[in-house]
Amino acid sequence: MSRWSKEKSNQWYEQHNWLVGCNYLPSNAINQLEMFQQETFDVELNKKELTWAKQLGFNSVRVYLHDLLWSDSKGFSERLNIFLDICETLEIKPLLVLFDDCHRPYPKLGKQPKPVYGIHNSGWKQSPGVAIVNGVFEEKLKHPEINRLKRFVQEILTNFGDDKRILMWDIYNEPGQFGNGDKSLTLLDLAWQWADEVRPSQPLTSCLDGSVGDEIIKLNASKSDIISFHTYEGEKLQGTINKLKVYERPLICTEYMAREFGSTFEFSLPIFKENRIGCYNWGLVAGKSQTHFGWSTILDLHKMKEQGKFVEDEDEIPEPNIWFHDILRKDGTAYNNREVDFIKKITARKE
Fold first, then answer.
1. Angle of CA points 170, 176, 178, to nearest 5°
2. Is residue 311 part of a domain?
3. Are 134 and 183 in contact (CB under 8 A)?
4. Considering the domain boundaries, does residue 81 fall inside one?
5. Domain total for the chain?
6. In the chain, at which end, N or C, are there fewer CB atoms within 10 A of the end residue's CB?
């Protein structure tokens, strides 16, 4: 089936209140695998932290899945259903992400790595990872992982494609990032083909700004029902919005908020509200992912690993003076009370 028309996309968007939320990873998980694997999936923690999101006025969350989780499709589906039920109870609609080119390139199932002390996203895993992305680029449909990846995309979109608890699907997060470049175009193109063959009832997207490579961005622009983008620099936000309005489709910023770059809640949320653009900041509760530390710490990753500076106990996770992402501590207290008051106030305003 073909892409949604502009009219259908805009009609769908008008049915929703202003979409505002966060990219959600529970504080006990270092990555998307640890979030959903049976041994570490924590129902009560998800309930507690998503309740805090609800109290902020958030009505949606963006959540990353992982292709490796589909090796136990029955068990993973059961846990995803539990998560979706929690969200539904709180009137929160998730946007679910399938593939991702960001951060650590070699994902594995099982016990996940410990956080590296004070390092931003030290254990986040790409999906499916650089080795497969490059292999698909070189071997196309002959690559041995193609059938598995196709099953993941098509089976999950089939099984959950009419699920009213789900807002929409993000086919591929930031294709081309972390050195993958144009090699990601092959898998991205296949992912769009696989998704189009199923055509779930929810809309599909993959970001423009945030992806890397002209052909990748062009493909996402031509396929996305809803135009999504990332902006972590406050000064670029309005200009990006103005540029993307040319598509005459709803706009959703699926990643923003980096305090040191001027992308704060106080700056960004009024712009999103005025332009009626859905928005998802990165992070809710500061935890094992340590995204309250800035991107600059990634440069220290190998040095810290060599020195054996891993977090042995979650209580050892440090706190920077100025947080990069995230809003709350693990006990629910705010990094900045004025900031939380502002979020609650602006999300409470009537349309």
1. 110
2. yes
3. yes
4. yes
5. 1
6. C
Examine residue 101 and state whether it is found in any structural domain, yes or no.
yes
Structure tokens given for 245: 């309005």
Q: Model pTM?
A: 0.97
Note the pLDDT tens digit of each residue in 87-131.
999 999 999 999 999 999 999 999 999 999 999 999 999 999 999
pLDDT in tens, 154-176: 999 999 999 999 999 999 999 99
- Kindly state whether residue 270 falls inside one of the protein's structural domains: yes
Given the structure tokens 């092959």, which residue do they identify?
A: 186
**Rounded Cα gap, residues 319 and 305, in angstroms:** 19
Tokens of 18: 């202003």
User: CA–CA separation, 305 vs 318, rounded Å?
Assistant: 16
Range of the domain at 78: 6-348
CATH of the domain at 331: 3.20.20.80
Question: Among 142, 143, 119, 121, which residue's Cα sits nearest to residue 131?
Answer: 143
